[in-house]
Amino acid sequence: MKSIRIILSLLLALVIAGKVSAQTSIVIFSEKGEKFTAYVGNSPRNDKPASRVETNRPGGPTFKVRIMFEDSSIPELSKTIFNSPGSDLFYVIKKSDKGKLVLEKTSSEYVHNEGNTAVSADNAVTKAEKKTAETAAIEATSPGGNGKGCSNPMEEPGFIASREMITNAPFDGPKLSQAKSLADKNCLTTSQIINMIYIFSGESSRLNFAKYAYKHCWNPSDYSKVKDVLRSSSQAELQKFIDSLK
Q1: What b/e string do you get for 119-155 counting C-beta neighbours within 10 Å, with b at 16 or more?
Q2: Shared-domain flag, residues 64 and 151
Q3: Which domain, by its residues, includes 172?
Q4: Quick one: CA dihedral 46, 52, 74, 135, positive or negative?
Q5: How many angstroms separate the CA atoms of 174 and 170, rounded?
Q6: Per the domain annotation, does 17 fall within a domain?
Q7: Can you list the positions of beta strands (E) in the chain?
Q8: CATH of the domain at 37
Q9: Mean pLDDT score of the chain, rounded to an integer?
Q10: Is position 14 within any domain?
Q11: Does residue 12 fall inside a structural domain?
Q12: What is the spatial distance between Cα 205 and Cα 166, in angstroms, rounded to a whole number?
């Protein structure tokens, strides 16, 4: 009888462990937007190349991930991943110090690069920040934006500082509240909205903010870019929401 109890306990533990494993996922994203197909083992996990892939990960202590880039000139990446039970895993594709793309583990989808966001004592932004600001300015004057959304997009240095502060919130709940407050007080471009979406760990929070920010977007005609960073089901729900406003 004691042996039967032990066997049943082990089976129950295996079932619970299997459920926990099925609920966890791995999120892989490229820092600079390179599109890729992710393979877990020999199984592709996205139908078409994307800059972000989220998928359930298998059980076991380790599993192998391969990254095949849409740009065939970029070498394939492969890495053995060590499972961390009970939590999602985040991996970023970024350039190493030697200039080659690598797959590295990160704590979330926000990769803080000191060189990109630092502000000097005289409040002058760095070259990287200036480049981002120039990109936002170009986006703000692109066709189809002005007159169809809010006016005067938020300046990039202020946005970067606000995003940094919101990122420091411990959970998605306060992050979402602060992000909505930022949208209420400012006009955001699609690229800024996408950057905000990346700070959320849960898909429901991502979709929630994507919906909320639509009415605070300078160039809503480009909102398909926002849809691209969401899951397929969320993309459909976001489009349904947008259609309901027309």
Answers
A1: eeeeeebbeebeebbeebeebbeeeebeeebbeebbe
A2: no
A3: 114-244
A4: positive
A5: 7
A6: no
A7: 25-30, 36-40, 43-44, 52-56, 62-69, 77-82, 89-95, 101-106
A8: 2.60.40
A9: 78
A10: no
A11: no
A12: 14
Judgement on whether residues 93 and 118 belong to the same structural domain of the protein: no
pLDDT digits (tens, 9 = 90+) for 152-210: 899 988 898 898 889 888 888 999 999 999 999 999 999 999 999 999 989 999 999 99
- What pTM was estimated for this model as a whole? 0.46
Give the number of domains in the chain: 2
| Strand ranges across the sheet with 101-106 | 52-56, 25-30, 89-95, 101-106
The DSSP call for residue 67 is: E
The structure tokens listed for 178 are 């602060």
Percent of the chain clearing pLDDT 90 (strictly above): 43
For residue 74, which amino acid is it?
I
Distance CA 213, CA 193 (A): 7
**Per-residue pLDDT tens for 15-72?**
444 444 344 788 899 888 899 999 998 899 999 999 999 888 887 788 899 999 999 9
Last residue of a domain, which of 72, 106, 140?
106
Distance CA 182, CA 174 (A): 12
